[in-house]
Recover the amino acids of this structure.
């Protein structure tokens, strides 16, 4: 330790007791009230001004200002209501900007309880600010009101600060009792001292000390403020309706967040008892996040507005919520706050993310949190659980964050220690996913990069049952109250649609190689897009995601292996035997053919109430939200075809809206357009001018090696950035965003997020097929970003496609990105003047000319 410069407190006697202050000291005063704190601030500030020091007053409390306006004192107001992160970051930037040897006065830290409701977070704030002040050789005064905070908060502050002083007033006299003074010592330092003017009289006689201390009110262990409010809220259940409503809103602001459309809906549907039930299942403190709120609200709406229609069919939930404060505490207590602050800047946003991500995967959780994790796992026993991200920004109006953060299944097999470690690791994985490139880019593109992204977590029991060594629900999927994927005029958009899979719902939300979910239009559930038997086999689900108890993992198994098990229900509900295919296989000389199954859910859709129930459920939720909604669900059936639905989440569906109807110009000659067709598009009614077309040639792409195909995907990402802000149409073979290069270009969504239109061309010779998987995360992304989508089935009767209209124009790839010249055989970029896209949902026509 180097010698830090000595400074006066402004009270000579106090200087003597503690051998003066040192630059770098954080001085924390334990006081009975704010006026006592003012008594010690005045001499400290007066002395600093006499010594021509830079004095800054950090103002955030509700109490009267501690200092009067003064030309030499900088007042720095901060709005603590915006939450811990923005507050801590503002203080950090202030300290960095004001430089070394600055003198600070902070308002009373206890006031932060009114904004954050959490002792833990005050401790966290002190833990990140105090070392930085020390590093900057600054000097700061803080105060804490006695007998309000928990022992652990005070202990954390004592451990972090350099100087901790107890100040009491007894019979008009002021006494200072030093509890900690770092790096200095005297035999009488830790006795109480009577302060009279500039003098300090040490009280060493045991009788006097005992008398003094006996007159001071020392409370016992104080309950965390959060728990205290919840305790009061329980008592409010006995009070009037008005009192209950007021208490309920306070609890909601602690658990759900600030005023928003979601907050208002919760206010309308939740009672105080409902909110207390949520609080009772929270681990830690802070917000429970958007996904949890969406799930709870949707269930409540169905219960309250459904008039008994849904209740008999609903599987109850017993989820837990990991509060968002755990996320910050994890970062602070592992010593990564500095790195987090660097990452939150524009320059450091992408630069420091990988390092922070690595660290998030390896930290330790505080002991009291570990204890709560343990109790929760004991509750779930050996039931499989899923650990799902539930960030503050998720599932809100306008930001669905579909699939941006991870969810992790814990099969929950093995000894309690193994199960505990797997759970803790699952939480780390979800935390680390806040630093995934896709999530970062998503937030950056929506101007959310400096918003508080607190990560709460939803822990749900996995819905389903054991079938031999596997655990899964019979069906799962995604539902939308508006069906924007309309392939012929007779489809009623307002009836909604489902994307249905057998087994775990992971197959319904991700685009899988060669595997297709069953799209159900809820107005006529059995209607299929036009296809023959061969296509019906190809465009169906061939693999089932299940939890394997033996491997303790999420695994994908072939449909035939799983469907042949005893499903505790008639398997014909989900699949029918494909005798035609069995005959073909025998003809080809396969002798021991077991008859394969095709999943078409035909009986489920015709013989059970399931499709009607889902249609009614989506309609009701959408009506209350006053907005189209998007849900995730599972359903489990019994031998008598009765079933239970588990509603896992619900959020406002992001759509570009239908827009006004668009008059589509008449085409006199088919050669006058780039393409024209009926159906196979989504994005509503548009009339859009196109500045550039980026075209990937199917034949040239096919000839590339796998590595070169990935190279093309990265080029698309560079073009996506280079043309940001322009209206660009991207057209390519097969599926965009596939993970399999032979099926299309394997771009990440963030590599085409600035495109206005994307087209997928079916090319018979290359075996490229677009996948109309509306409802998967990739499509969610398109819909939400407002990207228009079209699938062009070249060679079909009502499809006109003239790629030469683009290819005869000059390829400007080399001018845009000189280093990409070598890709010009595969990627053709044409600047288009006057090209326009028209679409009309009612007639299902789309034209680009």
């Amino acid at each position: 330790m180097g010698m830090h410069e000595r400074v006066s407190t402004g009270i000579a006697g106090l200087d003597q007791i503690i051998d003066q202050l040192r630059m770098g000291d954080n001085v924390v005063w334990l006081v009975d009230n704010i006026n006592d704190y003012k008594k010690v601030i005045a001499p400290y500030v007066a002395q600093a001004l006499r010594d021509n020091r830079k004095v800054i007053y950090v103002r955030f409390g509700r109490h009267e200002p501690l200092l009067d306006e003064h030309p030499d004192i900088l007042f720095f107001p901060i709005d603590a209501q915006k939450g811990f992160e923005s507050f801590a970051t503002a203080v950090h930037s202030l300290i960095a900007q004001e430089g070394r040897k600055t003198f600070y006065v902070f308002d009373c830290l206890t006031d932060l309880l009114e904004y954050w409701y959490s002792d833990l977070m005050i401790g966290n704030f002190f833990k990140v600010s105090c070392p930085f002040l020390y590093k900057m050789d600054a000097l700061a005064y803080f105060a804490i009101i006695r007998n309000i905070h928990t022992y652990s908060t005070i202990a954390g502050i004592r451990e972090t600060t350099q100087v901790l002083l107890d100040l009491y007033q007894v019979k008009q006299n002021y006494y200072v009792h030093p509890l900690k003074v770092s790096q200095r010592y005297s035999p009488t330092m830790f006795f109480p001292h009577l302060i009279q003017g500039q003098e300090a009289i040490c009280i060493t006689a045991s009788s006097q000390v005992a008398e003094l201390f006996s007159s001071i009110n020392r409370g016992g262990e104080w309950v965390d403020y959060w728990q205290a409010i919840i305790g009061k809220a329980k008592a409010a259940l006995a009070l009037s309706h008005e009192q209950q409503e007021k208490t309920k809103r306070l609890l909601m602001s602690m658990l759900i967040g600030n005023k928003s459309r979601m907050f208002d809906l919760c206010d309308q549907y939740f009672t105080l008892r409902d909110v207390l039930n949520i609080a009772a299942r929270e681990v830690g403190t802070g917000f429970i996040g958007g996904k949890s709120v969406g799930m709870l609200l949707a269930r409540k709406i169905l219960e309250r507005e459904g008039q008994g229609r849904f209740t008999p069919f609903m599987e109850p939930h017993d989820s837990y919520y990991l509060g968002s404060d755990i996320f910050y505490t994890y970062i602070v207590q592992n010593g990564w706050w500095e790195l987090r602050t660097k990452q939150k800047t524009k320059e450091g946003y992408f630069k420091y993310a990988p390092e922070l991500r690595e660290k998030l995967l390896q930290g330790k959780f505080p002991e009291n949190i570990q204890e709560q994790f343990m109790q929760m796992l004991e509750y779930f026993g050996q039931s499989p659980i899923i650990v799902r991200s539930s960030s503050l920004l998720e599932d809100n109006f306008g930001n669905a964050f579909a699939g941006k953060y991870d969810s992790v299944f814990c099969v929950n097999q093995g000894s309690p220690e193994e199960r505990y470690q797997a759970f803790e690791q699952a939480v780390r994985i979800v935390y680390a996913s806040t630093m995934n490139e896709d999530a970062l880019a998503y937030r950056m593109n929506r101007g959310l990069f400096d918003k508080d992204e607190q990560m709460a977590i939803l822990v749900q029991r996995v819905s389903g049952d054991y079938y031999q060594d596997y655990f899964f629900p019979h069906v799962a999927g995604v539902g939308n109250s508006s069906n924007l994927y309309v392939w012929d005029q007779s489809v009623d958009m307002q009836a909604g649609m489902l994307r249905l899979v057998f087994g775990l719902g992971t197959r319904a939300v991700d685009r899988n190689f060669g595997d297709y979910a069953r799209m159900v239009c809820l107005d006529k559930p059995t209607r299929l897009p036009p296809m023959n038997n061969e296509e019906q086999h190809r465009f169906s689900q061939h693999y089932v995601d299940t939890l394997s108890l033996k491997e303790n993992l999420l695994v994908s198994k072939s449909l035939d292996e799983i469907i042949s098990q005893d499903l505790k229900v008639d398997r014909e509900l989900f699949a029918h035997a494909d005798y035609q295919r069995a005959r073909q296989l025998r003809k080809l000389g396969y002798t021991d053919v077991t008859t394969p199954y095709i999943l078409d859910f035909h009986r489920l859709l015709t013989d059970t109430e399931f499709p009607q129930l889902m249609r009614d459920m989506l309609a009701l939720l959408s009506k209350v939200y006053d907005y189209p909604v998007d849900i995730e669900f599972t359903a489990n059936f019994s031998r008598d075809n009765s079933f239970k639905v588990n509603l896992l989440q619900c959020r406002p569906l992001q759509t570009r809206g239908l827009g006004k109807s668009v008059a589509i110009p008449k085409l006199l000659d088919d050669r006058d357009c780039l393409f024209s067709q009926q159906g196979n598009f989504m994005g509503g009614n548009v009339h859009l001018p196109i500045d550039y077309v980026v075209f990937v040639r199917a034949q040239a792409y096919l000839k590339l090696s796998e590595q070169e195909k990935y190279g093309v995907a990265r080029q698309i990402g560079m073009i996506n950035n280079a043309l940001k802000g322009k209206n660009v149409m991207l057209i390519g073979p097969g599926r965009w965003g596939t993970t399999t290069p032979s099926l299309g270009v394997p771009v990440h969504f963030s590599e085409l997020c600035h495109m206005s239109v994307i087209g997928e061309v079916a090319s018979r010779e290359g075996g490229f097929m677009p996948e109309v998987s509306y409802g998967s995360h990739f499509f969610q992304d398109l819909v939400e970003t407002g990207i228009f989508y079209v699938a062009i089935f070249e060679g079909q009767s009502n499809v006109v496609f003239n790629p030469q209209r683009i290819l005869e124009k000059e390829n400007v790839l080399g001018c845009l990105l000189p280093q990409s010249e070598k890709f010009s055989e595969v990627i053709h970029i044409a600047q288009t003047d006057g090209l326009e896209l028209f679409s009309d949902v009612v007639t299902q026509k789309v034209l680009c000319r």
About this structure: The first helix runs from residue 12 to 18. The radius of gyration is 32 Å. Confidence is low (pLDDT under 50) at residues 655-659.
